[in-house]
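Issue 218. Parser rejects a valid record. Input:
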Amino acid sequence: MAEALKPWINLPENTDFSIYNLPFGIFSTGSSKYRVGIAIGDQIIDLAKAHQTDIFDGLNIPAEVFENEFLNDFIGLGKLVTTEVRERVQNALCVEGSPLQNNPTIFVDQSSAIMHMPVRVGDYTDFYSSIEHATNIGKMFRGPENALMPNWKHLPVGYHGRASSIIISGQDIHRPKGQLKPEDSNPIYAPTRRLDIELEMAFIVGKSTPLGSSISTAEAKDHIFGMVLFNDWSARDIQKWEYVPLGPFLGKSFASSISPWVVTLEALQPFAVESPKQDPEVLPYLQYDGKHNYDISLEVDLIPNNEEQATTITRTNYKYMYWNMAQQLAHHTVNGCNVNIGDMMASGTISGTDPGSFGSLLELTKGKEPITLNGGQERVFLEDGDRITMRGHASKDGKRVGFGEVTAKILPAK
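Output the parser choked on:
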């Protein structure tokens, strides 16, 4: 095992933003415009100010890359540069008398900062890659004999979602309206009565490709910059009525929430694990070498309206994913579809093998069996005023790399 790093900065115990993490994000304060930052403990390293020291000498990074509303330009410098930036900051946090230690104004309290969308998302794809989730939903809709569609074990199923409605953690959402089809009447127009969550993670594309090219599973890691937590809010009654024959539309496109800090793939490598065995064997373009799943513990808290007490309604792990990111990206581009820096690709709902690890209320309640919260209230689906908070972290050998949280409250329909 590599020798433990010893930063001179004081860090809160069990912080998600350890010396081994150093995720990137976009922040502002009352006295500064949007800029690129790195999270460390409960602080933010202002990279625009750090750039004014000699810490990045020789990298030839224009100042405007760090004085930016999005990470896209920074990511576009390529992994040789972005990885070097992260490693130099990591080293400077462990060396007494470094430019970071000698310039305290480089640090900003996270509590005094406003976090913004980390990337300009040009396109968004949502996959359906948890076999436990797909099986649970399939049993409910088609019965146990036909739980998985015939194609499910042969390719990573996905659909093109709405990039414009991806929002940052902390932005509350209004209950969406649309067409519903009650059992014994014609369709009606009304607010959704079955508002749900989907516990997901998403990766951010870090390298653009030309139209007509494809990315192999072996090349995928070079094209993935990092990951965020992702809550794909879902209106199940709108979705049920509209999804045949072309799939999700208004039941999904009203909002998806993400965590603000992008954890790099390099920070996650110590937590890489083997993927589940795939049977039947996949086609050659989907085969891969190495470890492409990650041991990331995930949980969801629900605070009901008019209360302050949270209930953890699910605990699961990203390692259960049947289709991994390398396969998702390879399949996405195998037909020649080009991808761009900042494109976001979500995992689909992440569910584990037992009921306490299901990643949606639809699974947890089967759409009709209430769960009891700590304060005594019951929920089948979300009510106005409810707040959902998702968290995720990886830990091993005393090292912790986390994502912070993604949170939002449900507001009444407009």
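Fixed in the parser; the record now loads. The first strand starts at residue 24 and ends at 29.
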